[in-house]
Design goal:
alpha/beta; 9 helices; 5 strands; 13% strand; binds adenosine-5'-diphosphate
């Protein structure tokens, strides 16, 4: 039972690839973005708290996402593919704690690397079809800023622990998918 983080900036394709891997290797796809959007859609108290934050492209508080991830891990006996979490070094530390609490550990962090111009191009492309409130021109730059400031340092955290594998995600989606699948296949 392996546990993998799929890491990348907004627009890098984490959700697409995580979904494919989950299906192929019978793992549970935990996307904090999807979990938060479900709370917003259901207009739960938590959803009402985070709606405006997400629309601005800010990160929501660690306490909120940690609560959602804890619940998802507890209810998933299979291997995990985490997408959109951790997004801060604090979240990475909490993830170590949560996994060890469940007798698990993180096996790999696969980072999908992409130049900024390509991220923006893909975000624009996605915005045309996603219907997501935060997929608009006004938030792109801010979401990438949040990534640079708060999320990129997570890469160093995993580099130091030897878990990080970086792949070039700027080619065709199918190429990137094949490379990620190879890595996961060797692992499981
Ligand atoms: P993307 O990576 O394409 O921006 P996500 O669906 O992963 O899309 O995230 C959408 C939004 O949800 C983020 O901009 C942020 O507001 C919130 N979010 C998702 N995951 C986290 C997290 N781990 N910590 C804080 N906020 C998060």
């Amino acid at each position: 039972m392996k546990n993998i983080v799929l890491f990348g900036a907004p627009g890098a394709g984490k959700g697409t690839h995580a979904g494919l891997i989950a299906e192929k290797f019978d793992m549970v796809h935990i996307s904090t973005g999807d979990l938060l959007r479900a709370e917003v859609a259901a207009q739960t108290p938590l959803g009402r708290r985070v709606d405006a934050i997400m629309q601005r492209g800010d990160l929501v508080g660690d306490d909120v996402v940690v609560q959602l991830v804890d619940h998802a891990i507890t209810s998933s006996p299979q291997g995990l593919i985490l997408d959109g979490f951790p997004r801060t070094v604090e979240q990475a530390q909490v993830l170590d704690f949560l996994l060890s609490h469940h007798g698990r550990r993180l096996d790999h962090v696969i980072s999908i690397d992409m130049p900024r111009a390509e991220l923006i191009r893909r975000l624009r492309e996605r915005a045309a079809i996603s219907g997501r409130a935060d997929d608009n021109e006004a938030t792109f730059a801010h979401r990438l800023e949040e990534y640079e400031l708060k999320t990129r340092p997570v890469l160093d955290y995993y580099r130091v622990s030897g878990l990080l594998i970086s792949i070039d995600g700027s080619g065709e989606i199918s190429e990137t998918s094949t490379r990620i699948c190879q890595i996961v296949k060797e692992l499981v």
